[in-house]
Amino acid sequence: MEQHNDPQGAREASAPMANRRHGGVRLIDCVWGAILLIPALTIFSSTHVWDLEAVCLLAATAVFYGLLRAILGLRVFLVLTYVPALFGVLAVGADLLRDVNLLEAALIRPDPHEAWPVIQPHAPWIALIAVLLAVPIWVSFRTPSTRTAHGRWPSATLVTITVAAVTCGAVFHDTVLRAWPLNVISVAAASAIGHDEFISTASPYAPTNPRSASASWGASRMPGLHSQNETYILIIGESVRADRLGACGGQELIGISHQDAIIYCDMTSGSSSTHTSVPLLISREMPGGAFRVSRDATFMKAFEEAGFHTYWLAVQERGIAWPDANTDLFVTIKRTDRESLLPSLRSVLAQNAPKKLIVVHAYGAHFSYCDRYEPATAALQADCSKLSELPGDSTLPDFIRAYDNAVAESLRFVDAVISEAAQAGGSSFVMYTADHGENLLDDGRKLFQHALKDPTRWDTTVPAVMWASDEWRSSNPARWERLRANRAAKAMHADLVPTLLGSAAIRYLDERRVAIDLGAMSPAADRTRWVMRRLGEKINGDQLRQAQLKRQ
User: Fold this and answer.
1) How much is the pLDDT for 54?
2) pTM of the predicted model as reported, rounded to 2 decimal places
3) Is 392 exposed, middle or buried (0-12, 13-18, 19+ CB in 10 A)?
4) Which residues partner with 263 through β-bridges?
């Protein structure tokens, strides 16, 4: 029998299949676009609220992705935007499930050793999301045509829109480039071409030093009899909340062995994150500023201008605070701060500089807690094998015991620094505080650790310790008594630099009126203690506490 080919019939038979393929491609196109835009709409559009409305940031994101899609075509577009899509999904999940601002955490580039314990419990879910997001890319390459129902833009229109968008971005780069994902892209581009001065404009979290070498505190020494040998030490701890200390209502075994030390239990930190709290602590800035690290010099400049040699000793990276000390030393992290930092401190104390300011940036009680102390000799027995997952009702006691051991070790380090200063002789003054506290599933939200989307009373209430040698106290009896009288006052981090400078009889320029010298006066009862919520936004720390007390 003679067979006749029917091309028209074949085309008609294949049309439904082609339509289904094109429908699938259109679905991928729409869903992928939503995946890319939803993070900008829900999280990143309000990351920098001080100079742009959220709708403007969202528009910048939409135009950026829209132009990429029109220029590249679907397949290439899916491949090039896979990483931002994955990061966006993870960011939304972190925001909803962990109350964590993942963009901030990524831009400040945490130490991988610090990041992995946080990521590890979620690693299977992250891998699953990565695989699921790869499926649309695989489907697009398996589909013979990626043509969608949307017609191609005319070339002239595309060129016009592209030129307009690029021009707008160039003119308003200090704001437009803060929109997701342009901030991350601009930081990477600026680093690649060697224009680091542009990075801090494109992203306030970016890892470049913004401090001006010419900044001055206008400092000088007040007249008086000053000791031949003077040492002032500021210890910046990590992740220690005040209520764990015995003197503040916690475990009696957690405390300072030097009985003449003064302990403050109601100290509000400037932020719940190391990368914003530490720069605030050592500056003339108040919470709520637009940039993580200001262009101003740190308080070490005031000591330098008053004739002191300044030192910065740290186990944490330089980019956290960009210190401007005369001498800095970043040492390898060992299990305890005593092992890591005491040898360097002894070496500095032995140097032939009669007037010294030493800032010691320790690792304190940062998670993973069991890594911060010697489990074999710890006062509280905790099963460290249970700390590899997120805490639950059954494992929380082990987390808390491990955390208390880490806090106890943090204070043993403070004790050791005090002892070293006492043995060095001369007039010495030691001050300690933690950069922030820690959440330990304290209320119904079940929050854990710190640097979350919103600060809490537990990650912003920290202790402070002050100690002075006999020689310093004999020269400053009224100041020492004032410091002692203020130990129950509502203090804040912004008070500590004025207190340290006042204790060294250094006058300086400071436009702040709310920050006070605790050795010279007491804080007003109605003073607002501000806390950084995120860059460009602050909240009342005392109102925060009252609101969260109601949650318990």
Assistant:
1) 63
2) 0.78
3) exposed
4) 465
Expressed in percent and rounded to 5, the helix, strand and coil fractions of the chain are: 50, 15, 35
Burial 214-237 (b: 16+ CB within 10 A, else e): eeebebeeeeeebbeebbbbbbbb
- Decide the pairing of beta strands 355-361 and 230-237: parallel
Measured CA to CA, the distance from residue 415 to residue 471 in angstroms comes to 19
Looking only at the bridges linking them, the beta strands covering 530-534 and 537-540 are antiparallel
The token duo for 158 is 């595309």
pLDDT of 146 above 80: no
DSSP state of 57: H
The CB density around residue 163, as the number of other CB atoms within 10 Å, is 10
User: Mean per-residue pLDDT for 246-262?
Assistant: 95
Which one, of 291, 15, 26, lies nearest residue 149 by Cα? 26
- Picking from 354, 355, 327, 204, the residue whose alpha carbon sits closest to that of residue 273 is 204
CA atoms within 13 A on the CB side of 221: 14
| Residue 484 neighbours by CB under 8 Å, 6+ apart | 262
- Bridge partners (DSSP) listed for residue 530: 540
**Roughly what angle, to the nearest 10 degrees, separates helices 337-349 and 396-424?**
10
- DSSP-derived letter for residue 154 is P
Residue 519 or residue 224, greater confidence: 519
- Is residue 271 within 8 A of residue 531, CB to CB? The reply is yes
Largest CA distance in the chain: 121
Question: String of b and e for 94-115 (b: at least 16 CB within 10 Å)?
Answer: bbeebbbbbbbbebbebeeebe
Q: Where are the beta strands (DSSP E) in 240-370?
A: 262-268, 309-314, 327-330, 355-361
In terms of average pLDDT, the best of 41-45, 136-140, 369-373 is: 369-373
